[in-house]
Amino acid sequence: MEDEIYQVKLTDVFEGPMDLLIHLIKKNEVDIYDIPIAMITEQYLAYLEWMKLLNIDFAGDFIVMASTLAQIKSRMLLPAVTDEEEYEDPRLEIARPLAEYLQMKSAAEELAHRELLGENTFIRKPGEVRKLFNQDGELIQIGLFELIDAFQQLLKNISPDDRLDLTADRISVKDRISQLVDIFEKKQSVTFIELFSDRPNKTEVIVTFLAILEMVKLELLRMAQHTQNGVIRLFYQ
Q1: pLDDT tens-digit profile of 156-174?
Q2: Which fold is adopted by the domain 123-237?
Q3: Each residue's pLDDT tens digit, 12-40
Q4: Which residues of 160-175 are buried (b: 16+ CB within 10 A; e: fewer)?
Q5: Which of 21, 173, 177, 210 has its CA 20 to 30 A from that of 221?
Q6: What ranges do the domains of the chain cover?
Q7: What's the pTM?
């Protein structure tokens, strides 16, 4: 239908709720075992609202995690127990799984960098792709939530009077993808900010965001961020 709003499904490509929590913990520079649960819960819910605004379809696991955070927040507000009672910090309910998840993720990344039997069979070697993200340690691979941060910063500079219209008859993500492909075929890598006009409006920002998500899902793009200046660069593959 022409009036159907464009929707992006985050299935089997982008990060899950644990990754969002880790992103928030790193962003706020807090200890995994001393999480300011009220602040992290508020920011977590804000990310979900932002994704809903963009009509991004995320898994129910995100909602379950939001409920868990809200429950832990409520338990933290209860009166302190007496000395005779055994007390366990409610935040450990999420800190322990996070620690285990980080260990598993670290192990998976280490395995991914090992030589694979028969990798020369493929047109593009895994090592060749990895080189794009490890140029003298200056670039690191990033995901959905770092990209959301970059778009939020861009939206802050746009007037609140600029109204957003995501209906299909006003905006075409497919057309924007075609435009981006043309850009990347001329340049194999482009910085995030180069994809926008000097004074982008809200619609341009959102449709570009959705187009990038689709291209990442189609494995046409990979994203990396400079460790020092925070500049995001997108690589065409």
Answers
A1: 877 766 665 555 456 678 8
A2: Arc Repressor Mutant, subunit A (1.10.10)
A3: 556 788 999 999 999 999 999 999 999 99
A4: eeeebebeeeebebee
A5: 21
A6: 1-114, 123-237
A7: 0.73
